[in-house]
Design a protein that fits this description.
Structural class of chain B: alpha+beta
Radius of gyration of chain B: 23 Å
Largest sheet of chain B: 4 strands, antiparallel
Number of helices of chain A: 6
Number of strands of chain B: 9
Order of helices and strands of chain A: EHEEHEHEEEHEHH
Number of strands of chain A: 8
Distance between the termini of chain A: 69 Å
Strand order of the largest sheet of chain A: 1-2-3-6-5-4
Oligomer: heterodimer
Shape of chain B: globular
CATH architecture of the largest domain in chain B: Orthogonal Bundle
Radius of gyration of chain A: 29 Å
Helix content of chain B: 40-55%
Order of helices and strands of chain B: EEEEEEHHHHHHHHHHHHHEEEHHHH
CATH class of one domain in chain A: Alpha Beta
Largest sheet of chain A: 6 strands, mixed
Helix content of chain A: 10-25%
Strand content of chain B: 5-15%
């Protein structure tokens, strides 16, 4: 019987897991341990619903409602001196409970503090764009759309940014295989030669480590190289790779360390 | 197999004229010598003036975040080299620091000093490369040759340390793999003693050069608000009037023990960025002199450890692996299965030569990161061209791209 492989997460899995292994946790501190963070949290929770909050590795993490994101970031920027949106993106939890976790990494240069605002959205929902507050969200949200397919409402130009405009599929989803899907394998052939040429050319080999021992066209037969077009039987002798200098080379005298002057100062 | 020509219809002709208002659309790149990589700009022009700019990136996209999800932590380290390939140790370091913070490791002092040396050498290499290419774009061939000569010396030093010139992979999670070679300090000192004269040479050539000033002054001015809104970091932010350097404000490694200034300028134009880069080279030299003294103190105090001691996460020294059974078993497990950091999240920012290089890691206790987000400064320094270029003229495009110091390995990841 074939081993069961989950279809909702095709990323690499640990091949050995101890049944009784309990993973340790990165310690979380209470927000009240840091007065600056505590004041920020109090100001935010006075106006918005805060679901969870803690400090982890010097960053305050706050979970809010998805609908509040624009107002929260505006409040943080204007009243709490969080002047920069450093980074934003999503985490794919579709396999677990069909949600995405969105995070916004904020930086306050005056307070020297970093805060992470987070919320969950259901698969298929859109987030509110914060591009009006922070221009850098323009590109970040496009990247998130490109990689996860999460759209941002009120975004001026919701197009792919890193992948081609006509690409299908979202590469950072856990359901998307590392080597790419079928669309990826045929993308360039379909586009340049047309679908009818698929059989003549074959799919793009996206595994760079692949060595096909019956291939004499693509120079992939490492150590068993044959002239181009040779019919490969599989019983070829390994290619003889002799070291050229063994018996001495015509017109080339061997470098002699004792008689040569070695310049060891590269700045001569 | 013959190609069917019609199927290759390009998206975009190189130049098109809009019907109504005589607007010229010019396609710049992706193969353009002064685009510093694969940058494609669609420029809408009125006469020679740009009215709209649309940067298009992604030509070097290799999906590093996806690769990270399918690699054990140590396996990903050489991949980070390919982000900012001008200063690859700083990427190694950013990743190593993020994982160390996740695990809660303390790195031995000698390793910290070596790391700081590598980071600052990388910063010098990156800034020299920036100066060389930007000056070349603007037409100063001499500066290009001078700066590349100095960069060559630094690459030799790095090559002596780790064997590679461009993709170093010189830093490990938990420390550094090797001690510096015997003549490292001598070579570095010789280089640093010459550096002030070299920097003065560049400045003599450029500072009051009429062409350089015309191309740099009052061109590409980034206001304070714009720099904040676009998430500018590093020299881009400092040239716009913020004295913000992560090494100073949120010190990592031993940066709180060294003395250096953070150069900044209020002007925000190309020339201000040029000045900031030049001053930063001097400050970097200052730091390097201090790290040499720190390293010598380490040798004197007999602090020989190079890797942190954490058997759950870090392999034992090679001598232990070869002589002790338990260390060999640990090493085997760590190499074949990989370390399993605790469950949690971390965002760690470091000051790379280009700006704030951040690594966000979400670990679920497995040997692979569940999510890894690379915060590369150049990504937004490219995005800012959308707002920065309109109003400028065509020749300014080249000098503005030059001073933003974008590297496409980092933009596209």
């Amino acid at each position: 019987m074939r081993a069961y492989t989950p279809k909702d997460d095709v990323q690499a899995k640990a091949y050995y897991t101890d049944r009784f292994y309990v993973a340790p946790q990165v310690p979380k501190q209470d927000v009240s341990t840091d007065p600056v963070f505590a004041a920020d949290l109090e100001a935010i929770s006075a106006k918005f619903e805060v679901k969870e909050s803690f400090i982890q590795v010097e960053n305050m993490v706050i979970y809010i409602n998805a609908k509040d994101i624009y107002a929260v970031l505006e409040f943080m920027r204007d009243s709490l001196e969080y002047t920069q949106l450093t980074e934003m993106s999503a985490i794919d939890w579709l396999a677990k409970d069909d949600t995405f976790e969105i995070f916004y990494q904020m930086l306050s240069m005056n307070k020297r503090k970093r805060t992470r605002i987070k919320f969950f959205i259901k698969n298929g929902d859109a987030v509110d764009s914060v591009e009006k507050l922070f221009r850098c969200a323009d590109w970040s949200e496009r990247e998130m759309f490109d990689m996860f397919g999460i759209e941002a409402n009120n975004h001026p130009f919701m197009k792919r940014i890193l992948m081609p405009y006509d690409w299908q599929g979202n590469p950072l989803l856990k359901t998307y295989p590392l080597e790419g899907d079928e669309f990826a394998a045929w993308y360039e052939i379909d586009k340049i030669y047309g679908k009818e040429a698929r059989e003549a050319i074959g799919p793009e080999i996206r595994d760079t480590a692949r060595v096909d021992r019956y291939d004499s066209e693509r120079f992939a037969r490492l150590g068993y190289e044959q002239p181009k077009g040779t019919k490969i039987t599989g019983n070829e002798e390994p290619t003889v790779q002799s070291y050229q200098e063994e018996g001495g080379v015509f017109m080339v005298t061997k470098f002699d360390k004792d008689t040569s002057k070695i310049i060891d100062d590269p700045q001569r | 197999m013959a190609q069917i020509k019609n199927r290759l219809t390009p998206f975009f002709e190189n130049i098109t004229f809009d019907r109504d208002d005589n607007e010229l659309v010019l396609n710049f790149g992706p193969q353009h010598p002064s685009a510093h990589g694969q940058l494609r700009l669609m420029l809408h022009l009125q006469q020679e003036q740009i009215v709209k700019a649309h940067p298009d990136v992604g030509y070097l996209h290799r999906g590093m975040e996806k690769m990270a999800e399918n690699m054990i932590y140590n396996e990903f380290m050489p991949t980070t080299d390919r982000m900012d390939y001008i200063a690859s140790s700083s990427n190694n370091y950013g990743f190593a620091l993020a994982v160390e913070k996740l695990i809660g490791l303390e790195v031995p002092r000698r390793a910290k000093v070596i790391r700081m040396m590598l980071l600052e050498i990388n910063r010098l290499m990156s800034h020299l490369f920036w100066l060389a290419t930007t000056a070349l774009d603007i037409g100063a061939m001499t500066v290009f040759l001078f700066a590349f000569r100095e960069r060559e010396y630094l690459m030799d030093i790095i090559e002596g340390y780790c064997g590679a010139r461009l993709t170093h992979a010189a830093i490990r999670i938990g420390g550094v793999p090797l001690d510096i070679q015997d003549d490292f300090l001598h070579q570095l000192r010789t280089f640093l003693n010459k550096l002030p004269d070299n920097i003065k040479d560049y400045e003599d050539l450029l500072d009051s050069n009429r062409i350089w000033l015309m191309r740099m002054e009052e061109v590409g001015t980034i206001s304070k608000e714009m720099a904040l809104s676009w998430g500018c970091t590093g020299p881009m932010l400092r040239a716009s009037g913020f004295q913000w350097d992560i090494r100073k404000e949120e010190p990592y490694e031993l940066y709180d023990e060294v003395e250096f200034n953070v150069p900044y300028s209020d002007k925000g134009d190309n020339y201000a960025r040029y000045r900031v880069y030049m001053q930063e080279m001097r400050e970097t030299a200052k730091i390097l002199y201090q790290t040499i003294a720190m390293y010598e103190a380490c040798v004197k105090n007999d602090q020989t450890e190079l890797m942190a001691h954490a058997p759950k996460y870090i392999s034992a020294p090679k001598l232990d692996i070869m002589t002790q059974n338990y260390s060999l078993m640990q090493h085997f497990v760590l190499v074949t299965q990989g370390m399993r950091p605790p469950v949690g999240e971390v965002y760690v920012a470091t000051e790379s030569p280009k700006g704030e290089l951040g690594f966000f890691i979400n670990s679920q206790g497995g040997p692979y990161p569940y999510r890894l987000k690379l915060r590369a400064p150049s990504f937004w320094h490219t995005g800012i061209l959308t707002d920065l270029l309109p109003g400028h003229y065509i020749p300014d495009v080249v000098s503005i791209i030059g001073t933003t110091n974008i590297v496409f390995g980092e933009v596209d990841r």
